[in-house]
Amino acid sequence: MMGAADRTFVIGGVIALPVGRRVEVTIFAREEGVFSVAKVPQIDEPLVRDLETGVVYGRSWHFQDEQAIRWNAPVAMSVRDDLEVAERVVGRLLACRVLSEGYSDPWQQTTLVVAPEASTTEYR
Question: What is the widest separation between alpha-carbon atoms in the chain?
Fold first, then answer.
């Protein structure tokens, strides 16, 4: 049963997690803009950690500076320590939906609904 305090995260890509798992969803802030640069939370690109298995779902920029990313080069296993946390939510996964438009279409989207145990907003 979903409640008012539950959090819904809509994520570009595929993150298939079993309902009932404890997860940690971390949203980082990145600099955006050309003339006026500001740190903006990347709400559709969170780092998601399955706390029961230890599997981590993330973008390449979570693990390695984009300037250093090369095609087919190894990417670090640990999350960068210079990223600014905008928000971190730990809780139980209530629902997981993965959408795609077919095998030849690269568009994919995952929706996670989390019942928070704790929520921290660290971004200012």
Answer: 46
